[in-house]
């Protein structure tokens, strides 16, 4: 196959590759944002001193960190659909769609990791700062809101950025439930054109470019939150 | 002394020629043994299946004594060309690429694509009905390709990595029907999981012809074609067909 023919193939399928890229970006973007939202109570509970508060988030995190994303996706997509109760429920219009199944699984999965990052960050807040806040007469709640969480977010941010990139790459499993994300599009194009090495290479490039964009984005956020400054204790 | 030599030479010639004549009637069938019900290895290690039944019937018509050699699919054409066996009966689709490496006989069966849907659905193979419906198929199969090329703008296509997953999704009601090779569908319909489903409409595609491969220029091809014609005409083929499928696959 000549370069001209290759180029012609790329141009011809570029819109489909673009659509796939959008699907990947959407899934990862929503999952890591909603995941962060879920992770806050989970992470706080996980950092609690009381075992009965710790227990639920602990089990949740244990399950989602301890099993592969692919397995969780199959459980949600193929597993739940085996039960008639689920198929008759109000959730079925969502659960029958591969897009929603992937989104739900990815969100639950990443929430567990983010919660663990948050727990680590909360526990890394210097005890002196917490004591100082309390000594100034802040209630527990006030200390959490004004001192502990803002500090923890800055401590955990680089790890969160890392998690976003990990999710981007992990999202490649969603093609197995028929979604046409970057990987799904490339697998379909491979079956159609037999140009395996070319389209896999293109997929790799797309993932690299997105990773680069995410890295830059997090650099900006870190600068905006003055993460560096808060590190110089 | 001279006459003794002549006799010896004559005897030697006779043995050689005779030997050759016997050898010509001994043929080796090549097959894969991993594609049930067409060719598979049974409990005793013997290759059996539709392909083998056809091959043995052909040998009988040609008056040849046949033995079976199995080979991995990847190396099966090189094995034919390096004379590990003489003709290849392994459910091989006749394609242009393969025709550059080997010769094919007339097709001995045809692969068809047919829809399967739930028994209680009014699934019809016509454009009005299919519009907006969701159809599943396995990725990288003729069925997936056919859907994309022939009715891609009409239906939502879901492509699965395994055939099994497409069936799972049809069972849970996510997709309205599945398109696949008629033999694959038939096997599944026979299983417990497939009991609530059935074929819908006529096969939509029957261009995938399956032939017997021989080495390039081998006159064996003509003998096989003649024998194939004979088993089709005298009903042997039909009998073998009926043993495996309740519909004609010729």
Automatic annotation (TrEMBL), chain A:
GO MF terms held by the record: transmembrane transporter activity
Compartmental location: Cell inner membrane; Cell membrane
Domain ABC transmembrane type-1, residue spans: 21-218
Residues annotated as signal peptide: none
CDD domains: TM_PBP2
Domain of life: Bacteria
Keyword vocabulary terms for this entry: Amino-acid transport, Cell inner membrane, Cell membrane, Membrane, Transmembrane, Transmembrane helix, Transport
GO CC aspect terms: ATP-binding cassette (ABC) transporter complex
Principal subcellular localisation of the protein: membrane
InterPro entries: AA_ABC_transptr_permease_3TM, ArtM/GltK/GlnP/TcyL/YhdX-like, MetI-like, MetI-like_sf
GO biological process, one term: amino acid transport
Residue ranges of the TM segments: 20-44, 56-80, 164-186, 198-218
Record bears the keyword Cell membrane: yes
Membrane topology: Multi-pass membrane protein
The family this protein is said to belong to: Belongs to the binding-protein-dependent transport system permease family. HisMQ subfamily.
NCBIfam families the record matches: HEQRo_perm_3TM (TIGR01726)
Protein's recorded name: Arginine ABC transporter permease protein ArtM
Organism: Halopseudomonas bauzanensis
From TrEMBL, chain B:
Protein localization: Cell envelope
Domain Ionotropic glutamate receptor C-terminal, chain residue ranges per copy: 26-247
Domain Solute-binding protein family 3/N-terminal stretches: 26-248
Transmembrane regions listed in the UniProt entry: none
Annotated Gene Ontology cellular component terms: cell envelope; membrane
Leader sequence residues: 1-23
Swiss-Prot/TrEMBL keywords: Signal
InterPro entries: Iontro_rcpt_C (IPR001320), SBP_3_CS (IPR018313), Solute-binding_3/MltF_N (IPR001638)
Pfam families: SBP_bac_3 (PF00497)
Entry superkingdom: Bacteria
An MF annotation (GO) of this entry: ligand-gated monoatomic ion channel activity
Main location: other
Family of this protein: Belongs to the bacterial solute-binding protein 3 family.
Protein name, as recorded: Amino acid ABC transporter substrate-binding protein, PAAT family
Source organism of this protein record: Halopseudomonas bauzanensis
């Amino acid at each position: 196959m000549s370069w001209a023919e290759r180029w012609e193939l790329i141009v011809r399928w570029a819109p489909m590759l673009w659509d796939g890229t959008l699907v990947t970006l959407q899934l990862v973007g929503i999952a890591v944002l909603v995941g962060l939202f879920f992770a806050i109570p989970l992470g706080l509970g996980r950092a609690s001193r009381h075992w009965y508060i710790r227990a639920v988030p602990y089990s949740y995190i244990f399950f989602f960190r301890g099993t592969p994303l692919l397995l969780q996706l199959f459980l949600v997509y193929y597993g739940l659909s085996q039960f008639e109760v689920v198929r008759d429920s109000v959730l079925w219009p969502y659960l029958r769609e591969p897009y929603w199944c992937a989104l739900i699984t990815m969100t639950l999965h990443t929430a567990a990791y983010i919660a663990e990052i948050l727990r680590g960050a909360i526990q890394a807040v210097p005890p002196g700062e917490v004591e100082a806040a309390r000594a100034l007469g802040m209630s527990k709640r006030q200390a959490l809101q004004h001192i502990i969480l803002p500090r923890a977010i800055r401590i955990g941010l680089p790890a969160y950025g890392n998690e976003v990139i990990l999710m981007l790459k992990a999202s490649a499993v969603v093609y197995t439930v028929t979604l046409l994300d970057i990987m799904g599009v490339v697998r379909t194009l491979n079956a159609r054109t037999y140009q395996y090495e070319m389209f896999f290479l293109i997929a790799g490039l797309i993932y690299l470019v997105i990773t680069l964009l995410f890295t830059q984005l997090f650099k900006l956020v870190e600068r905006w939150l003055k993460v560096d400054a808060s590190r110089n204790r | 002394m001279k006459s003794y030599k002549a006799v010896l030479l004559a005897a030697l010639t006779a043995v050689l020629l005779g030997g050759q004549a016997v050898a010509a009637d001994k043929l080796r069938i090549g097959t894969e043994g991993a594609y049930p019900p067409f060719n598979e290895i049974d409990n005793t290690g013997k290759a059996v299946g539709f392909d083998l039944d056809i091959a043995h019937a052909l040998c009988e018509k040609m008056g040849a004594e046949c033995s079976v050699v199995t080979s991995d699919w990847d190396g099966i054409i090189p094995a034919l060309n390096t004379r590990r066996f003489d003709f290849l009966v392994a459910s091989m689709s006749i394609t242009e690429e393969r025709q550059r490496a080997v010769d094919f006989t007339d097709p001995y069966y045809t692969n068809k694509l047919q829809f399967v849907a739930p028994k209680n659905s009014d699934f019809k193979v016509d454009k009005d009905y299919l519009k907006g419906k969701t159809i599943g198929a396995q990725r990288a199969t003729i069925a997936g390709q056919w859907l994309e090329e022939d009715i891609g703008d009409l239906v939502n296509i879901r492509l699965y990595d395994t055939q099994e997953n497409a069936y799972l999704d049809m069972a849970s009601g996510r997709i309205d029907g599945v398109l696949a090779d008629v033999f694959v569908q038939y096997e599944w319909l026979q299983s417990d999981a497939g009991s609530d489903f059935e074929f819908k409409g006529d096969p939509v595609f029957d261009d995938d012809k399956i032939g017997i491969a021989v080495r390039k220029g081998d006159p064996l091809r003509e003998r096989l074609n003649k024998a194939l014609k004979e088993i089709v005409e005298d009903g042997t083929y039909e009998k073998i067909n009926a043993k495996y499928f309740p519909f004609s696959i010729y």
